[in-house]
Amino acid sequence: FCPDLIISDVVMPYMGGIELRANLRKSGLYRDIPFVLLTAAKREDPILLHHLQVDRCFTKPFDPINLKKEIGLLLNNA
Prior knowledge:
Elements (H helix, E strand, L loop, with lengths): L5 E4 L7 H11 L7 E5 L6 H6 L4 E4 L4 H14 L1
Parallel strand pairs: 1-2, 2-3
């Protein structure tokens, strides 16, 4: 199974989204799949997000129409 896109919250039980992305990149597993982070924080560290190659980051509450649009763009560019 290989997903077309990964959407992860930053804060989750057991492993957060930033740690998940770092582990996926380090292992090579799903390295090139678009990755979207959701966060309640007003701002994540842009340098860290760039380093992790996170494609988009949305602050909650987010506009679901905008999220859907951005996902469409990511999937069409993949």
